[in-house]
Specification:
Blueprint (H helix, E strand, L loop, with lengths): L1 H18 L11 E5 L38 E5 L5 H11 L11 H5 L15 E8 L5 E9 L13 E8 L10 H14 L5 E7 L3 E9 L4 H9 L9 H14 L6 E8 L10 H7 L1 H7 L2 E6 L6 H10 L3 E4 L5 H8 L8 E10 L4 E6 L20 E3 L4 E10 L6 E10 L6 E9 L10 H17 L13 H15 L2 H15 L3
Parallel strand pairs: 5-6, 5-8, 8-9, 9-10
Antiparallel strand pairs: 1-3, 2-11, 3-4, 4-14, 6-7, 11-13, 11-15, 12-14, 15-16
């Protein structure tokens, strides 16, 4: 059984390279508003106008992350499709350990699950906004859902790929399921890529070495297999040298008209050379900005440097995912469609709440992705890079004013065209509602369960918890029911993971 499981994991991870090129795409009741028309330049969604001066919080009405109404009522963040936090939490709980609260990012829990938002026909986004009331008086959850076109659209028309794989061969990678898994995955990927695609290979331990320069697949697959199969674990982990050499190799092999990516496969346990992510990123800044080479991080291992990998991916205009055994197929098929192709650059979202109906609000997660409100339309400020087949979900805890009725919020997403850099925006609004969370769209309920679960793992203090948060036992039962309604194995896994968390509490 163990051998069969290992073979399945290896084959699934091997699909990563192929699913970097071709991926799998991602349900709807409750109060909802959506928009899928596109426009550039002006903001015309009505009240309130964005980018007014930020008001001060009222200390009597705010606590922690809860934001007291200010004159503009704005919340702005860069889009993020990372899912590593949830994957690593599942792995940790399955081993009987409670995750470090610092590794819990609620948005990555929420974004680990399938969404059924409408999708646009071309590049850009659709915007869906809906909401439902929690069990706590005057408190609701508001969901902002953004979706790109399906991953299968125009897949045959994608540009060739130029991928520089940066492989950790330090001593810690000798653990089964790390370097061996990466090698077999790369071997399978080599057979799946197109003849006009190219790959380069860089390894690092105490030093970094270019094993293979940028090489076309057509006619050179045997040479690539030989380079992959010759990898062996060695000494310490100089991740900084690996990333720097990887980007230098990517620039040397840069292909005009191709999609150029650096793919880092590591447990991110850096213990040699430069270990500060900002210093590492500074060294590769020219390659990243001038050539548009983005970073895609694949985390492996029971011990994993989550903070380092997450920081590198966020500031490297890329994404990160954690791979553990039984969820590798879900991660690479459902969560990483088309990480080579791009449909939007520097994408940001801004939600404007109506002070007539909203007393206070809190963005759930996205702590490291917050953007100053005034920078929403400053296209020099980094946002998130998003590809086809992706969805991005943001949840807000919103306290409405007693008897509130009418407009509640407007959500706007702004992005740049990946080729022309022309800016575009799209908006959708939401009116007040009376729907209960337990009666909302099943996918909305899954998002709520995931967010409540992350909240419980990150902070169990009663005065800081999300409004209406059930106990872990109630969350597990809720997830059980939703797994039957959605017929989604990922939701069943969520229920099992919540039950595992109950056993390691305290």
């Amino acid at each position: 059984m163990e051998r069969q499981r290992t073979r399945q994991v290896i084959l699934t991870l091997a699909l990563a390279g192929g699913l970097l090129l071709t991926g799998c795409g991602a349900g709807d009741e409750g109060s909802k508003s959506s928009a899928d028309g596109s426009r550039g330049g002006s903001y015309d969604s009505g009240f309130p106008a964005p980018n007014q001066p930020q008001g001060e919080q009222n200390p009597d009405e705010s606590r922690g992350d809860y934001v007291t109404p200010s004159p503009d009522y704005l919340s702005t963040f860069a889009l993020d499709v990372d899912t590593a936090s949830y994957g690593y939490a599942r792995r940790t709980l399955a081993e009987g350990r409670r995750p470090d609260p610092s590794t819990i990012r609620p948005e990555e829990f929420v974004n680990s699950f399938r969404q059924d938002y409408d999708r646009p026909d071309g590049n850009g986004f659709t915007v869906t906004v809906d909401g439902a009331r929690t069990s706590k008086d005057d408190w609701s959850l508001v969901r902002v859902g953004l979706a790109t076109r399906s991953a299968g659209e125009n897949a045959d028309e994608r540009p060739p790929a130029a991928l520089t794989f940066v492989i950790d061969i330090s001593g810690s990678m000798a653990e089964p399921g790390r370097l061996d898994l990466a090698q077999r995955s790369l071997d399978t990927m080599t057979e799946r890529l197109r003849d006009d695609d190219s790959v380069a290979l860089v390894t690092f331990s105490d030093q970094a070495r270019k094993v293979l320069p940028m090489t076309r697949l057509g006619g050179h697959r045997d040479r690539i297999h030989e380079a992959i199969d010759g990898l062996e674990p060695t000494y310490s982990t100089n991740l900084g040298a690996g990333v720097e050499t990887g980007y230098r190799t990517a620039v040397e092999g840069l292909r005009e008209g191709a999609t150029n990516r650096v793919v880092l496969i590591s447990d991110a346990l850096a213990n040699d050379g430069e270990t500060d992510p900002d210093a590492i990123l500074e060294r590769i800044d020219t390659a990243r900005r001038e050539h548009g080479i983005t970073l895609f991080g694949i985390g492996v291992g029971s011990d994993y440097g989550d903070a380092l990998m997450e920081r590198l991916a966020d500031k490297g205009d890329g994404h990160t995912v954690y791979v553990s055994g039984d969820d590798a197929e879900k991660v690479f098929c459902e969560q990483l469609p088309q990480n080579i192709d791009l449909t939007a650059r520097d994408a940001k979202a801004q939600v404007a709440f109506d002070p007539e109906t909203v007393a206070s609000f809190r963005l759930v997660g996205y702590d490291d992705r917050r953007v100053a409100d005034d920078d929403f339309r400053d296209d020099r400020v980094d946002g998130g890079e998003v590809g086809p087949g992706h969805t991005v979900t943001a949840l807000y805890a919103v306290r409405t004013r007693p008897g509130a009725d009418g407009h509640l919020a407007t959500a706007t997403v702004r992005w740049q065209d990946p080729k022309t850099r022309a800016p575009h925006e799209k908006s959708a609004g939401l009116e007040t509602f009376d729907d209960s969370l337990r009666d909302a769209d099943p996918r909305f309920q899954v998002d709520a369960v995931a967010a409540y679960f992350a909240d419980a793992l990150r902070d169990t203090a009663t005065d800081n918890r999300l409004p209406g948060r059930p106990s872990l036992g109630e969350l597990a039962d809720w997830a059980d029911g939703l797994s039957e309604r959605t017929e989604d194995s990922a939701v069943r896994q969520l229920a099992d993971t919540i039950r595992q968390a109950r056993h390691v509490e305290g």
